[in-house]
Design brief:
- By secondary structure, the protein is an alpha+beta fold.
- The strands form two sheets. The chain has a seven-stranded antiparallel beta sheet. The chain has a two-stranded antiparallel ribbon with strand order 4-5.
- It is built from seven helices and nine strands, in the order E-E-E-E-H-H-E-E-H-H-H-H-E-E-E-H.
């Protein structure tokens, strides 16, 4: 059998729970999503005049002929970025390989892990049992918190983003004879947690570095008509 030694290594995306907790949660994508939908919304408003009167943003814009002054005067609220993707799960390959867990449970372990990523950790029966066994000391105290886990969305080497999963929709498409799911899709919506955390700052720095590389295309500006 001929193999290609220069075959590129394909990195997989993943969801990984941030921090130590019981049980630890992670899902490595069996198939990378074919697309990501990324959105960021901004809302603009006219500043208060100080006398209690407000004007429409359109009327506010009419007061300025200097775009630089207008840019500095208008108020803007920048929302955190949202990301949407669809994950595909299929047990066929592991069933062909004779994987014992897949033969017994299909893709239920992966689906269950995704579901636990949007459930309060204190509701975890396994977490409660292990937490009681290990005691309250150490870094596992998040097991008793009412919030869902904080998750890192890992997409290659340049994007490691802390996110809140805001919506999870699972569609089970095929079952084994004993009704274990063996094929499914999961649509995930998430909000990026923007701040001073190390993962976000790293990803932001990589984005700014990519923008600097775009300067290699600066000669393209010659093909743009800019009014003098």
């Amino acid at each position: 059998m001929t193999t290609f030694s220069n075959k590129p290594r394909i990195l997989r995306g993943a969801f990984v729970e941030y921090g130590l907790s019981l049980p630890p949660l992670f899902v490595v994508f069996q198939f990378n999503p074919v697309q990501l939908t990324r959105n960021r919304s901004l809302s603009f408003a006219a500043p208060n005049t100080g006398d209690g009167r407000t004007s429409s943003l359109r009327d506010f814009h009419k007061r300025y002929d200097d775009l630089g002054a207008l840019r500095d005067a208008q108020q803007v609220t920048v929302q955190e970025e949202t990301i949407g993707l669809e994950i595909r799960l299929d047990a066929s390959d592991k069933l062909d390989e004779g994987d014992a867990i897949t033969e017994q449970f299909g893709i239920a372990p992966q689906l269950s892990t995704l579901e636990l990523m949007v459930c309060p950790k204190e509701e975890s029966l396994l977490g409660q049992a292990l937490g009681a066994l290990l005691g309250s000391s150490g870094g596992f105290s998040f097991t008793r918190k009412p919030n869902p886990p904080l998750v890192l969305f890992i997409w290659g080497r340049k994007r490691v983003l802390p996110v809140n999963i805001s919506a999870l929709n699972i569609t089970e498409l095929l079952y084994s004879p004993d009704l274990n799911p063996v094929r499914a899709t999961a649509t995930v919506s998430m909000t990026v947690i923007e701040g001073k955390s190390l993962p976000f700052m790293y990803s932001k720095a990589m984005k700014e570095a990519m923008s600097v590389l775009n300067l290699s295309n600066i000669t393209d500006i010659a093909n743009v008509v800019i009014p003098g």
